[in-house]
Amino acid sequence: MFIQCLGSGDAFASGGKLNSSFYVRTASKKILLDCGASVLIALKKQGLTAAALDVIIISHLHGDHFGGLAFVLCEMIAMRNRTKPLTIIGPVETETRTIQVLESLFPGVRMQPDTPVAFITYTTGKPLDFEDIRVTAYRAVHSETTNPHCIRLQAENKIIAFSGDTEWTDELIRVSMNADLFICEGSTWTTPVKQHMSISQLLAHVHRMQVKRIVLTHLGPEALSNIDQIPLPVAEDGMVLLDE
Fold first, then answer.
1. What's the burial of 20, exposed, middle or buried (CB within 10 Å: 0-12/13-18/19+)?
2. 165 burial class (0-12, 13-18, 19+ CB within 10 angstroms)?
């Protein structure tokens, strides 16, 4: 399995970083974990294409995590460069809101009956098996109108956990149990912030977690200004997080 960070930034591109997106390649699939609005830029900077993707998994419906779907679909429809199905797995309302964003940003660009896209809705706490991958979504503590979830992805005997955006919740212990990699938000260094997690909060719970490696993402200005004090790896755009 190969995992590369395409975008490690927050909603405001703090530090000049691109929006949330992680590229996962297995022997059979090319997967995106989150699809922020800057995703086409992120993909092409790494020599990748949206047309080659098989699956996109969405943690929640904020623009810096799912807004790139509209750009992926617009490129697909306008360029007619896709020959294989694309499966989009996300929370309730992913399809509805994606179509709304597409029509708002690109009026007149619409999916047709033969557009090779399928939307699948996951159910909180229930494993979703799609061919040779398993996706399990756990409830996150974030803006409720975005249907927020943490994601556990299992493929090729590897477990990848992703916090999405969330305050601390014990669901993070469940989602990351025995994970090979846990990609976790750390929006601030010590300052509490509603609907997000400080790195200090995470560090207070690390001893309770059974995970091989934690990498931080989604850092805001306070966290970035204290990066020399952070005792965990911090994702950078383009960084390879796993290659084995």
1. buried
2. buried
102: which residues sit within 8 A by CB, 6+ positions away?
A: 69, 70, 73, 74, 109, 110, 111
**Non-local CB neighbours of 47 within 8 Å, separated by 6+ positions:** none
Given the DSSP bridges, would you call strands 55-57 and 86-90 parallel, antiparallel or unpaired? Answer: parallel
Q: C-alpha 190: how far from its chain's center?
A: 24
Query: Beta strands 214-217 and 181-185: pairing type?
Result: parallel
Structure tokens belonging to residue 138: 């756990």
Tell how strand 55-57 and strand 240-243 pair up: unpaired
Reported as a single tens digit per residue, the pLDDT across 185-242 is: 999 999 999 999 999 999 999 999 999 999 999 999 999 999 999 999 999 999 999 9
What does the radius of gyration of the chain's CA atoms come to, in whole angstroms?
17
Number of other residues whose CB lies within 10 A of the CB of residue 121: 15
d(CA 140, CA 53): 26
d(CA 37, CA 102): 12
Burial class (CB in 10 A: 0-12, 13-18, 19+), 166: buried
The domains of the chain, with CATH numbers, are: 2-239 (3.60.15.10)
- pTM exceeding the 0.85 threshold for the entire prediction: yes
Nearest to 54 by CA among 149, 114, 130, 142: 130
Ordered DSSP codes for 88-130: EEESTTHHHHHHHHHHHHSTT----TT--EEEEE--TTS-EEE
